[in-house]
Specification:
mainly alpha, 4 helices
Length: about 130
């Protein structure tokens, strides 16, 4: 069974054909995301192994969720890299901390640089998640 959504030609009067095509693609993409969100909500509420039954309330919740929660930001590679570095760098700072060796100039500089890098990466990691 195929469902179609129809708009009157008057609603799209000022649209060029490429604009209409892009609108169609964006609408299909939005509907697919909305349907996926409905299934996610249904899965979280349905504790049985029975067939999925999506109610009007679930659809309403999915619409509200899609409106209020912004889409995930792109640049996932940098966010993941920052998270990994923010996890590893504090461990390295802990390994390099040795109060006896920190009295030497080169060890102190290395430790200070590593500490500053850790602070910067953790700050970036938090800011990229906002």
């Amino acid at each position: 069974m195929s469902n179609e959504i129809k708009l009157s030609d008057e609603a799209l009067e000022g649209f060029s054909q490429p604009a209409k095509d892009r609108l169609r693609a964006a609408t299909i993409e939005y509907l697919e995301e909305l349907i996926s969100e409905c299934y996610r909500l249904e899965g979280s509420m349905n504790s049985d192994d029975g067939p999925a039954e999506i109610t009007q309330g679930m659809v309403n919740d999915a619409v509200i969720f899609k409106k209020r929660i912004p889409a995930k930001k792109k640049g996932r590679f940098w966010r993941v890299s920052a998270r990994i570095a923010a996890s590893i760098l504090p461990l390295l700072v802990g390994f390099f901390f040795n109060s006896d060796k920190l009295t030497e100039g080169s060890n102190l500089v290395l430790f200070a640089v590593l500490l500053v890098m850790t602070a910067v990466v953790i700050t970036l990691s938090v800011l990229l998640d906002v």
